[in-house]
Amino acid sequence: MHVAIVTMFNGLSKTYSLVSVVEEHLHMLLGGGMKVKVLVSQDCPDSERYGIYSDERIEWVKITNRLGDKQIHWMDYTQPTGRVHPTFFEEAEVIADSLYEAVRDVDVVFLHDILYQGWHLVHNIAIRQVQARLPRLRFLAMNHSYPAVRPLRMDWPLSGRYTPLPNTTYLYPAESGLPALAGQYNVPLEQCRAIPNSLNLYGEMSEAVQGLGSLTDLLTPDILAVYPGRLTTGKQFEKAAALIGAMGAESGKKVKLIFCDFPSLDIEPASYKRIIRNAGESYGLGSEELVFTSDMGWPDGFPHRGVMELFTLSNLFICTSYSESFGLIVLEAASRGNMLVLNQAVPALEELGHGLNAYFMRWNARGFDCDTRESYHPSEEAYLREHAGIIAKQMENNPVLQAKTITRQRYSPQWIWENRLKPLIEGFN
To answer: Where are the alpha helices (DSSP H) in 322-379?
Structure first.
């Protein structure tokens, strides 16, 4: 599919919020394999292009902003009645000719505020002329501000802000605004769709996290746990894997466990990884649901900055460690809004966890006077499954954890592309 995005930007300053919104849409479109043109004003400086706007896959097209040798000055026609300035229709015609050449080879034209904003009325009318010349064209018309109330009296061309455009689906960032959107353009509600603004959590994160996210899914799990540590039996990673597996089985939720591991001389890494994977698999944890960063390109450990960024994505931290003198990693996970599940048999974790309202379970541990070995009745499996169900339910009932999780899952560019924007564009086939 060939998509043209019509913005008519005069510049790319992020103080204009629409610049950031279109930036995210470009990531979605290019990531989805679309062929993309971006249409901007003739006066938009090339020197301001940055990031995705400078991507070589984008065809950057400047639409004329001149009538003869004079610059076209946009006038803000927000009123529904009255007259336009004397050269308005001449300006619309030359702009239409420029737009026609730019979109004659595309399938879908994505309009950003072109039909809505009063200062884009000249482009609004120009687009209508293009549509008449290219009736096969399909349009997605996005309103980024609250829809305007449809007036009782209107004069052409001022009424263009309220007049339906053929072959168009109307878009708004929130479902709640769709009835008002339909009312503005006097179209059926079924012709309107919600495309929420996205939050690109990867956008400000390090290359390490972005790289890991390109190799394994960090966004869609309902329960995402990150456990950094040396790959030693003292961390009892296999207990964490078993618990996460049990949580998935008991709750029916999508789970994932990321071990940010680094080498230890205690045990051969491949052997211990097999033990850990077997423990998880025995409780239903799939191979894609358990990840060692050492297998993903970081054999000597994942960067600490990256670990902290992963904690902003995760919602659960499990510390099954056999021995800890303090447990700074617990504070780091807590500071990024994770539910804490700690080994109560370790004195330092019990002390720290009580102050942090952690959930406690018991695994083998080292105390100050002796080592402890847990026995479970009727079985360790029953113990794990019981607590797994409780933890999953507590996470589900915690509004802060739920808000964090839903934001990661449903407002990522990937989710919005796959579930909202892509179906609209491909539906035009």
So the answer is: 328-335, 347-355
